[in-house]
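pipeline: protein-struct stage 2 | run 1193 | Galactose-1-phosphate uridylyltransferase
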Amino acid sequence: MYTYMNFQTNIARTKPSTLHNKEDSCPFCDRETIFKEGVVISQDGPFLLIENKFQTLERAYQMVLVETETCQDDLSTYDKSHLHALFDFAMRNWETLESSKKYRSVIFFKNHGVHSGGSIYHAHMQMVGLYDADYREHLHPEQFSGLVIDRTPGVEFNLSTRPRGGFTEFNVVLSDRNALHKMAKYVQIAVHFLLTHMNKRYKSYNIFFYEYKGNIIAKIVLRAPGSPYLMGYSIIQVPNNLAETVQRIQSLYFSEAASM
């Protein structure tokens, strides 16, 4: 079962694309214009939640969460204080949008890289209020379980054995809101591993956030050219070296010699 939404191509054609065109100026670096336009919904230090100027989806309200003041940094390299503050700001605003009851559901995700579906290089996330659709209708518990990489009270970090889209998907499952900062660290480790050790060629990923069965879940997905098996036949491929990948991450990030 799928949910279909109308996409307004005439609006999409006017969007800048700093990922594909270096001549385009970055709209998220130009904070003076952002404030003049009056599109700021929420602000805390360097973090902004703003109205998306390009509302390409019908029956939805699209927002952008700008993570940094410049294009120089990315989630994989944020220091601890910036990382924690970002997740505090993001979760607070996501929960506020959900509890407003304006939308049937609010999707929250991040694009990074040319294969992620994004267009702007500057580090950002997106929140989209859906008036008619509930993303939870397409979720299943097995999509968030897997081989455990690490676990601390209130949060689990695993490698999916039943991915939604195939190949490499990490899950960070938060069951205790007080462990949010540990969740943020697990997400950063997954992103750093994908970009530095696993996806050097494409350097693209998505993070999808879900509220599901009382948990907050982040699914970090390696992105590369789409699989014809998935696109044409809904056949999901699962790598046969999952245990090896888990051991590699544990060695790199959770051993005594780990550098991150």
